[in-house]
Each structure stands twice: as C-alpha cells, then as structure tokens.
C-alpha cells in the first residue's frame, strides 16, 4: 500500500528530502506521493521516513493503493534496478 498526503499538509518541506525513492513532490496545493514510486520505505528502512518526520501526521496509508510487503519489496527492487 502506498502512502498519501492529506489536506492537513502544511507544506513544511520536511518529507520530500526524506523519501529514498523520490516519490514525494510538490503538488499544486500540497505535497503529493506518486503511488508508483512509494514503497513505504520497504527495502530502505523499517518505517516510512516521511511519516516519521511529518509534524502534523498527515501521511496515512492510501486505501486505494493496497499492496502487500512482498509487492512493495518487488517494487523496491524494480525502482532500485532502474537507478
């Protein structure tokens, strides 16, 4: 399951540099997470780094992009192989 950034985002800029997959980018109003690049930090860290640094707790799991840990690891392997 990838993560999403909710409307509670205050555009504090701390999440974007923490993402090891460059899945976070500025949107028109708030930061956005590309579900094709988000692995919830599987393969890099034990916990999603964006969630760890977010001061307003606005980065939940995206119920519209449900993925297992195995699927997230597969996505991680594809992303890192392309880098």
Secondary structure: elements and pairs:
Blueprint: E1 24-26, E2 31-33, H1 49-53, H2 69-82
Antiparallel strand pairs: 1-2
GO molecular function: 4 iron, 4 sulfur cluster binding; metal ion binding
Keywords: 4Fe-4S, Electron transport, Iron, Iron-sulfur, Metal-binding, Repeat, Transport
Domain 4Fe-4S ferredoxin-type: 1-29
Low-pLDDT stretches? none
Structural class: alpha+beta
Name the helicity range.
10-25%
CATH architect. name? 2-Layer Sandwich
Number of strands: 2
Mean residue pLDDT = 95
Q: How big is the Rg?
A: 12 Å
- Per DSSP, what share of the residues sits in E-state strands of 2 or more residues? 5-15%
Biggest sheet layout: 2 strands, antiparallel
Strand order within the widest sheet?
1-2
What's the number of structural domains?
Answer: 1
CATH topology: Alpha-Beta Plaits
Helix count from the secondary structure assignment: 2
Shape: globular
Q: What is the ordering of alpha helices and beta strands?
A: EEHH
Roughly how many Å apart are the termini?
22 Å
State the CATH class: Alpha Beta
């Amino acid at each position: 399951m990838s993560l999403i950034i909710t409307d509670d985002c205050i555009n504090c800029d701390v999440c974007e540099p923490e993402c090891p997959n460059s899945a976070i980018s500025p949107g028109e109003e708030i930061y956005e997470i590309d579900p094709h690049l988000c692995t919830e930090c599987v393969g890099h860290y034990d916990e999603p780094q964006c969630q760890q640094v977010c001061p307003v707790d606005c980065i939940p799991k995206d119920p519209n992009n449900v993925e297992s840990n195995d699927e997230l690891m597969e996505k991680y392997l594809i992303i890192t192989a392309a880098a």
